[in-house]
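[audit] Reproducing an earlier prediction to check determinism. Same input, same settings, fresh worker. If the tokens differ from the archived copy the diff job will pick it up downstream; this log only records the rerun itself.
[audit] input (254 residues):
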Amino acid sequence: MDEFKNKIAIVTGAGQGIGFEICRNLALEGAGVILNDIDPELAEHAAKQINQDNNDACTALAGDSSDVEIIRKLVSEAVNRFGRLDIVIANAGITLFGDFLSYTPESFYKVMQVNLGGSFFLAQAAANQMKLQPDGGSILFTSSVTGHQAHKNLAAYGMSKAALEMLAKNLVIELSGHKINVNTIAPGATLTERTLQDPEYIKTWSRITPMGRPAYTKDIADTALFLVSEKARHITGQTLIVDGGWTAISPPPE
């Protein structure tokens, strides 16, 4: 279990859910992980949980992942503590539902600031460090099936996620020469602390997902780890959808 031994990773939005599971699995595979979440208590608790089994492999650094100063701190922490940065997973994002005809500018710009701005500038800061390293690094964005299929009341969110996939493609031009590969993962319905607040979530998404169930966070984490591993270093500019086949037929939830 040492595929990521001596690798250093940053994961944003990782206090719980998919981000937490990615951090946990990276640590299990030998990586040093800097775990970011906007909630300081959640970040510290998550890092403590991971470190119970992984000998202080995880460091919590709380803050708004769309704040450029926090982004700089994340990269500086990796470099100052470990001397390098191998993997960045821009997982943080927010979902603000709303009807298109009444969606507010405040909601729109907040979604774009976090989902796009945070990811863009984290990738920029990481790439400026990775280009100094002989073996470059790997960057992964977290998109969504809503970037591929229309979903009611998620026009702004879906737009932001589709844009991340185009960003990954464009960065192939900018970063391949520095041995940096950039990809995107697009999760479908996934069982997390947030989605399980809906008592009908499992029933609904089990019914309309061809594979018969929503994803577990481990399903998403396994895919993320593949895309930032040495096995995927010749894969770049791609999006991998992990949704149990939902986007192939796209039945809407009731």
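[audit] rerun output stored. Observation attached for the diff report: The mean pLDDT is 96.
[audit] end
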